[in-house]
């Protein structure tokens, strides 16, 4: 019989500072615009899933030759930028395919978009892919949407306004224990996978960082662990997760909107235990 390693006790993460409020009218307008763009993207992704042949795709601009760029990626990001430029003039956009607008790193507000998160799944015809858009300020994502076309869902959240799926509030699902639960992970360290298995925890790699974090917001997984990521991969889903009550932590166990060196998104009741498994 395999012995289950003892998980040492860890103190709870320090309290999370309250983010600054955002103008309510701006939040409402941003949430409405982001929702429209997510619906547009869901229709396009659904209609084209698995129909772009790999021979015509471009991986030349990426370090990983498996990290495809499709016509759909480019089309959706161009559409997003056009709409945002018209409705939020002067607010810079950061996107996976076309980079950051001038001044995005110092602007008080910026939009962050990943037109197809999980492009390899999309190319293969697997429905685990998503559109992600967020409005970000100095305290992190203030508005976030994630379109999950495979399940016919548009997830949306705004700071202080909770988390909704297709316009319906998502009820909180409290998680009391890690054993017997699932953790979503992207590029997981083999040691982490072994520790999780020994602790009777299932690890699932979805191929989409946005959807991995969204599973925590929904209560389907107790945590998501990302070894590396870009802001556009996670910003929209982090808004969903924080509004659902999850914690966003770095490897040091401290709460920060976008940790460097990997991140952990977890239900508060299990954050310390999952963090111990992650750090080893």
From TrEMBL:
GO terms, biological process: inositol metabolic process; phosphatidylinositol phosphate biosynthetic process; signal transduction
Ranges annotated as biased composition (Pro residues): 1-22
Superkingdom of this protein's organism: Bacteria
Molecular function terms, GO-annotated: inositol monophosphate 1-phosphatase activity; metal ion binding
Renumbered residue ranges of the record's region Disordered: 1-24
Catalytic activity: a myo-inositol phosphate + H2O = myo-inositol + phosphate
Annotated residues for binding of Mg(2+): 96, 114, 117, 233
Cofactor (UniProt): Mg(2+)
The protein's Enzyme Commission number: 3.1.3.25
InterPro entries: Inositol_monophosphatase-like, Inositol_monophosphatase_CS
A Pfam cross-reference name: Inositol_P
Alphabetically ordered keywords of this record: Hydrolase, Magnesium, Metal-binding
UniProt enzyme class: hydrolase
Entry-linked Gene3D superfamilies: 3.40.190.80, Fructose-1,6-Bisphosphatase, subunit A, domain 1
Name of the protein described by the UniProt record: inositol-phosphate phosphatase
Biological source species: Pseudonocardia alni (Amycolata alni)
Lineage: Bacteria, Bacillati, Actinomycetota, Actinomycetes, Pseudonocardiales
């Amino acid at each position: 019989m395999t012995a289950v390693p003892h998980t040492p006790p860890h103190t709870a993460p320090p309290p999370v500072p309250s983010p600054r409020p955002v103008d309510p009218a701006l939040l409402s307008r941003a949430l409405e615009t982001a929702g429209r763009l997510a619906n547009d993207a869901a229709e396009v992704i659904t209609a084209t899933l698995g129909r772009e042949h790999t021979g015509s795709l471009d991986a030349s601009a990426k370090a990983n030759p498996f990290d495809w760029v499709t016509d759909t990626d480019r089309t959706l990001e161009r559409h997003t930028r056009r709409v945002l430029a018209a409705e939020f003039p002067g607010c810079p956009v950061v996107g996976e395919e076309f980079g950051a607008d001038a001044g995005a790193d110092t602007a008080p507000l910026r939009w962050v978009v990943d037109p197809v998160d999980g492009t390899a799944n999309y190319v293969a015809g697997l429905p685990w892919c998503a559109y992600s858009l967020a409005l970000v300020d100095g305290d992190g994502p203030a508005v976030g949407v994630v379109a999950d076309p495979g399940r016919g869902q548009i997830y949306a959240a705004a700071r202080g306004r909770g988390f909704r799926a297709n316009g319906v509030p998502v009820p909180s699902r409290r998680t009391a224990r890690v054993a017997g639960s699932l953790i979503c992970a992207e590029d997981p360290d083999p040691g982490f996978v072994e520790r999780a298995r020994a602790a009777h925890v299932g690890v699932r790699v979805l191929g989409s960082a946005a959807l991995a974090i969204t599973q925590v917001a929904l209560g389907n997984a107790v945590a998501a662990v990302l070894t590396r990521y870009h802001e556009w991969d996670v910003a929209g889903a982090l808004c969903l997760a924080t509004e659902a009550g999850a914690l966003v932590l770095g490897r040091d166990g401290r709460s920060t909107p976008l940790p460097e060196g990997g991140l952990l998104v977890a239900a508060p009741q299990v954050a310390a235990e999952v963090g111990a498994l992650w750090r080893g």
